[in-house]
Each structure stands twice: as structure tokens, then as C-alpha cells.
Fold:
Amino acid sequence: MMDLYSEIIVDYAKLKKYKKRMDDADTVREGVNLSCGDEIKLYVKVRDGKMESLSFEGKGCIVSQASTNLMIERVLGEPLENIHEILENVKRMVKGEEYDKNLLKNVSIMENIRSYPNRVKCFMLAWRTLEDALKELDRG
Amino acid sequence: MNSKALYRDFPILDRKIHGKKLIYLDNAATTLKPKVVVESLKDLYYFHYSNVHRGIHTLASEATNLLEDTRRKIANFLNASPEEIIFTSGSTLSLNTIAHSLVKSGILREDSKVLVTTVEHHANFVPWQRLSKIYNYKLLYARPTGRMGTILIEDFEKFIKEEPDVVAVTGASNVTGQRLLIKRIREMFEKSILVVDGAQLVPHTKVNVKELDLDFLVFSGHKMLGPTGIGILYGKKELLEKMEPFLYGGEMIDKVTLEDTTFNILPYKFEAGTPNLAGAVGLAKAIEYLENIGMNELENHIKELTDYAINELMNLDFVELYGPLDETQYGIISFNLDGVHPHDVAHFLDESFGIAIRTGHHCAQPLMLELSSKSRLDFPNATCRASFYVYNTKEDVDALVEGLKNVKRWLG
Structure:
């Protein structure tokens, strides 16, 4: 039916696995999508330069929830430099530019977000929040 | 009223959206434009265009006459006099003009009190709030204690003893569609300056500013079939005369010397710069179109559609409805689906059924907070909003209801 609401994307949106508090996170970062009121709280834990744990709390539309779960699934266990590379490719993907599909793996099932400029903010909420969290950790 | 017969006046209604016939239910955001309005702009720019008030040549006087004819037409529409009708870019500039002029004139000062409600659009909330921080007047909030964001007369009564200097209220909420009892509010606050945000009221009913004894009324042209970028500020003459202009510049002056400036007469004192002539001409044409239909006919048609839609939506057990749901609700219905985010609802309705609704906080975040505290859902700080105008039909409501059932089945 519709690209953005395929069964697999709806299933990702409803995934509960990563939706939880983390008490021993290195940083907790909040993100807000001002245009619709979606809020997300991202719990980040990094060990030895790798993303050891990542979880979130918050509510939002299917696009933002699916995107958050896809992101967590993709970046867990990855070295931080790879995550920066993934982030850059995600930005290219939403802009409709060429990107590395193999690197993004399952995240690319939402590639069609590029056709819906009104929904890009929903899609990017988690990614921007992660980017902010990493910058914060970087600054120490 | 035969809404279907009006279809041919609105070419955009022939458009297909994702292969489906467009069903436009976002009228509280802006209405579609009939051919006569668009053609009036074309006619102006092709044959009569010039700047107003300045020149001596033929085109300049034609343009000036067109603007002043429009002013008279709008004055008649509201039962005001032409010098009380000020052209602005829309309700937002009108409200900012009122608030800023009141403080600049010292009518609002440190010990003053302004009463607003928490159901206001940000345009009638933020200016009063921000200026209260700068000029230190006291801001009072009437909160809605009725059903799901409905504001009751009692919610105002408790502020009578405060004797607010200004009462700034919406004529009709852009979220719940509730029409406020302006007549009662006027009686309660006899001595206050009463500012009414008519953005969602004037498009739906004839407002008589003298009968209601309003001090200020504002509205936007584009929400009543007119072009974007034109709005009206009605102000009582004796108040406008006492007030310092908000914007300074050309046209609004009388005499300028190095030492000081004196101002033009009303209404020009409040119209700095070249006015939006085309917008004004288009708005006059829109009002003419609405008056040909008949404002009473229009009002009844929209009320009938609203009641029909409320009844149909109440049958859906997965829908939570906001607002009063009674005789005071006009033209606007806000709701949420249990378990589906408003953005997903709107996206799905558009893509699968060609239905345009609005979602989000509707520039009314304080009201979203009120709704959040009363909702039985995991409230998403946003609602879906369907709003009707002259060309909508019961079939449009039926399509919405069917669409929502599908959304729930697919995403819920």
C-alpha cells in the first residue's frame, strides 16, 4: 500500500525492545519536534569507543517511532566513528542524494521519506538527538 | 444550500490528490478561492493598477477609489464606519497593532490588568504575554473548566472583581470550534476594552460591532475566500483617536519636521506604507460572494455539517472528541484516534483518500496542555482537526468517517 506505512515499518514503530529507561546511561538527551509536539528522551552508554547501550522513552508518530527503533538497531555495538558515517549517510538519504545503502542496512527501508518533506522532521528527530548526545559526550 | 452547485466556482476542487478527488477539510487554516476572487485580482493588475492616495493621474485615482470602496463595503459588513476600518496583513498584525499601540499610548501601563483565555490562538496570546513582561502589566488567564477545552461563563465571572483594563478573547476557538458568548462577556466587563479575535468567527457569521459594543475586532481575509496577506482591524473611533500608531512610515503622517511628526487622520494613521490593494479588492469580492450566498444560509449549512460530523464521529469508539459538542460548536471538530498519532492519521487520509485535514498543536499550545490533562488517551500534544466551509457536503463527512475507520484498521 503506502511506502511509509508498510507492514514492516509499522512493526518497527510498535517495537517495545528499546523503549525503556536506562539508569546508568552516560548521557540522557531530550529532543523535541516543535512542529508536532513529538518528544524523545535518548539514553546513551558508550564503552571503549563503541555504542554499548541505547534506549529511549517518548511518544510520537509511526515515522518517528520506527525511525528511532531502526536507528538503535543499526548503531548498537558500532564504533563511534562508524556512527558518524551512518549519520552522514542518513542525512544524504533524506535529502535524496546518493548514499551507502549497504552501510545503512535496514534503515534504508524508510528511504522514501525523501518524497515527504513534511515528514522528514519526524524521521530525523531520533537521529538529531543522537547527534547532539554524541557531541555532548565528545565535549566531555 | 446547494454546495455541489458551488463546485464549479472553485477550480481547485477538480484536482486529484493521489488519484482521488480532493476533499478539503482544512478550512480553519485557510479556505479555497472562488474564480471571481482570483479574477478580481487579475482585473486589477491588468487594468486598474497603481499606488493609492499619492498620484494625480487616472490610474492612481482608480486605485484609490477601489481601496476606499472596499473599505466602505467592509464597514457596511460589520456595521462600522469606514474610518474605523484599518487594512492589515491579517489577524496577527491586527492583534499586534492593538497590543503595541495600547502600551505605547500608556492606556496599558504598569498597574494595568489584561485578561486572556488559555484557549487562544498564539496570535492573541503571545503579544499580550510578551508585552506584559516588558511593560509589567498583570496578565490574568481564564481557563476552560467545561468539557474538553470548553470555556464557560463561570470561567470569566471570577475575574469581574479584578476589573481588567483589557479583555482579549477569541470569538471562536480554532481548535474546539466553540463560539464564545461575546455578548455576555461584554456585559460582564462593561468598562474593559474588549478585543475580539474574529479569525474563526467573521467567516461564519455576521458580526455587528455596534450591537455587540466591541472595542476591537480582527479577522483575516484568507479564511473567508479572500486572498492571503489581507486582514482587518476594526477599532472604535474614540479609542483609535487616542492611540499612538504601532508602525511609522509613509501615508500615516501629517507633517514631518526635524523636531517631530504629526499623524494623518483615521484610518490612515494606522496604515503605514503601501497598502495591499489587490488583497483588499479580493477580500471585497469574497465578501460579495458570501453575501450572495447569504451569511445566514452559510452559517446554517456549516452548523448542520458540524452536528452531522459530531454524531457520526461519536459512533466511532476509537475516536476521542474535544470541545463542547453542543450548539456552541461551529465548523471545527478536533479529535484523536486511540493509538494512532495525528500525523499518521493526516498522512494516511491524504494518501489513501485525498482528504486534507490539519494536525498539530494548531498554534494553541496552552490549550493542548488543558486537553492533555483531560484526555483518556496517551495524549500526543496535538490533535486532528476537520473544518468545514461553504463547499463541503455530508458526503465529505462520510468520506472522513470511512477514512478514519481504515486508518484505525491499518495503523491502530
Remarks:
- The first helix of chain B runs from residue 3 to 6.
